Automatic annotation (TrEMBL):
One Gene Ontology cellular component annotation held by this UniProt entry: oligosaccharyltransferase complex
GO molecular function, a single term: transferase activity
Signal peptide range: none
Protein known as: Dolichyl-diphosphooligosaccharide--protein glycosyltransferase 48 kDa subunit (Trinotate prediction)
Alphabetized InterPro entries for the sequence: DDOST_48_kDa_subunit, OST48_MD
Organism from which the protein derives: Myxobolus squamalis (Myxosporean)
Gene Ontology biological-process entries: protein N-linked glycosylation via asparagine
Transmembrane segments: none
Domain OST48 middle, residue spans: 77-189
Amino acid sequence: VGGVEMRNSARAVLMGSVDALTDKTFFSTIPQGLDQQKFPVVQPGNLPFFTSLCEWAFQRHGVIRVLNPSHTLVSSGASLDEYIVETLLEYSITVQQLDNGIWKPYVVDDMQLEVTRLTTFGRVTYNSTTNGVYTARFYAPDFIGIYGLHTRYRKLGFTTLDHQVKIIIRPRRHNDYDRIIRGAWPYYLT
């Protein structure tokens, strides 16, 4: 028996025989020792194994998803269309996992946020809560442009989580700077 999950979360399971999913295999018994009168006969656990394997293959469990992505300014709590360079931002998401047909919070401590343009500008580890809400604080890059806030998470047995939100980083306006710059005094005097 072998199983594989691709990057796009497609799953495939290969079994060596069609007899693996028969009642004979599910409910077979084996002796624990050589003398069947001394040692009890036990079930090997084929039914729970193949049931769990089929549920995984058909994505009945091991599925995670992202809900409620939001980005805000830390200073005001406002969500804007554009952010100014070098301001403190907060990005939050809710991650859930499918467990027996019910979506439950998914809590881990190794999920990261990547701030990317063409390359990664920064990587921040999320702070998680018990209800599956992840938050990360970071300073906006000092280069203007359109940035992606990527959450890429791969864990064995779970679907690949690849979520992206785009934000715009703009320069400061002319009235955001100090009016008189000390280094420019020689130019003011000429």
